[in-house]
Amino acid sequence: MKKILSLILLAFLSFGINSFALADDDDDKKLFVNLISDDLDRAAMAVSISNKVLSTEKIKVTIFLSAQGVRWVDKTIPQNRYVNGKTIPEMLQGFMKSGGEVILCKMCMKNVGGLDQDDVLDGVKFTGTLSALFADNTTVLTY
Q1: pLDDT tens digit string along 16-37?
Q2: With a threshold of 0.85, does the pTM exceed it?
Q3: Which domains does the chain have, with CATH numbers?
Q4: What is the pLDDT of residues 88-97, one digit of tens each?
Q5: Beta strand 30-35 pairing with 60-65
């Protein structure tokens, strides 16, 4: 009798663990990184973490540039290089080539950065912020 109960308990636990593993699927997890700073170290950290998550976790990652963060995609100003030898725009281009999404706040682009859409790095989007930010299972980081 003990053996039968043990087998039933083992089967129940096995089914429960497998069901939990299936429910914890990474396909619906997302990362939304809000980059509001024009500080080189903060921006490099935001892009580096976004790249790392994109490449290792295989989940959707969006970087949203707002406030002073819009200056990172301004093609008209020279950019400093980070210790890895790359500029933030170069890092953002690599992120987008790897499948990441970069969205720019249009209001900040005009009011903070004084930019037009022609001044912005190629590949940056101007729409989709709310759907990315408020999607289910989205983790938000702010730099």
Answers
A1: 433 333 345 556 899 999 999 9
A2: no
A3: 26-142 (3.40.1260.10)
A4: 999 999 999 9
A5: parallel
